Amino acid sequence: MRVLSLVCTLSPSPKPSSSMHLAHQAGEEFRKLGAQVETVRVVDHDVHPGVGLDMGEGDAWPALREKMLAADILLLATPIWLGHPSSVCQRVLERLDAELSEQDAQGRLLTYGKVAAVVVVGNEDGAHKVSADLFQGLNDVGFTLAPGAVTYWVGEAMQGTDYQDLDTTPEAVASTTHTLAVNTVHLARLLNERPYPAS
After folding, report:
1. Residue 103, SS3?
2. pLDDT tens readout for residues 135-164
3. Which of 91, 126, 154, 188 is 20 to 30 A (C-alpha) from 120?
């Protein structure tokens, strides 16, 4: 079982990132279930704007897409900015739009059979709205979602605490992150054994 975690923080490496922190915690839960996890901070790569598979010279998306196609699970992590997913996350969704034109020999999207999950962090409310946006976009381009396919943390409104600065992980977040991993891996295994029918 292979997991690709695309972290859509606006902060390039090695700057600390709450999105990266919670994505790493989710990755540890996946590893406990025997999955291999690769984490990519998208902002460190020159992903060009557009909705094509390859937007030309220097575009980093084709290499990231190959990693996505090789994975069973896509974990998409984003901060909340102004009540929305980050611009980096939106760009990933826009690039995934090209998958709507790609099919296998049986007429299925290449993303069929792949499972997606979401990580959201912020210091304002909005995790349900952001996860709903991502769920719809990921499902539109062919990914399947398990129950409990999001883990999130949002701090008190109008305060400056970041998730990465907490002394301990809240039990509710730890439990939700564990459930995300268990259900997502379970669904991915089922789909590996019983693929979707020809379209």
Report:
1. strand
2. 999 999 999 999 999 999 998 877 888 999
3. 188
